[in-house]
């Protein structure tokens, strides 16, 4: 990806300010300017009897993928017949979760691994997608939260290399093959959070037989700790051989990076699924069914492309979400 323009920086900064304002405005019954989505006509999603008498508030986190998902959730709820409040684009996982947990928001898309490790405070996650979803679903029922059917999309951590480096690195395709490389070639770019997570860098290396900081493992001098966006650019430019990435990031494709297989299944599953305040879907079970129809179409390849449209092409998340929903036939353009 090219370095973002000043215009894009300003757009993202403005979005952040609007997201913070959104939480305060919600208490006054006002909608923030960031609540815009294009007007949609009917599609395949079923309008629910009685929904027009109920207001449903949607939230999401602030990064690109979540901004797109927030608008998909808004459009799905509107197509279902509800009056919709839009509190998407909230800075941080915990503040967005808090809106759901306290009943100030009713619906969001979130990640099973994040819920298990961050919200529900478990030490380790499950690489098996069905198992990870099930344990999160079962435990969150006690919090008045119901997880809907998961999407195929699994935005977990991974390591990628510059595609043109594969020959130099002995045709590497799997994380286990890093240990076969000379120490000088075991160079990594990671973000600071990943460097200290329990599902992060040090335990990942240990799983693959390498010790961080060891002269015969991965010496400290071989590791660059960078901002998230800088990791992708640094890897593409050859500043390191292995860059930490998110598996649905559009920059993987635009920068011609190749994701390595996590062949020892270290990283937990981060499947996306819609979650709801339980009392809402008890009253309107068809809403859960409508979201399940949408979630079925949300996969890694789709979101690599949708994320790219925002991060690389500079399109607005609301427009990207709308165009995708129309293409899938869930709604129609007016």
Automatic annotation (TrEMBL):
Coiled coil: none
Keywords: Signal
Membrane-spanning parts: none
Any one Gene Ontology molecular-function term assigned to this protein's record: transmembrane transporter activity
SUPFAM superfamilies for the chain: Periplasmic binding protein-like II (SSF53850)
Range of residues in the leader sequence: 1-26
Entry's Gene Ontology cellular component terms: ATP-binding cassette (ABC) transporter complex
One Pfam family recorded for the sequence: OpuAC
Keyword flag Signal: yes
Domain ABC-type glycine betaine transport system substrate-binding stretches: 55-325
Database matches in Gene3D superfamilies: Osmoprotection protein (prox), domain 2, Periplasmic binding protein-like II
PROSITE patterns noted in UniProt: PROKAR_LIPOPROTEIN
InterPro entries (UniProt xref): ABC_Gly_betaine_transp_sub-bd
Name of the protein: Glycine/betaine ABC transporter substrate-binding protein
Species of origin: Galactobacter caseinivorans
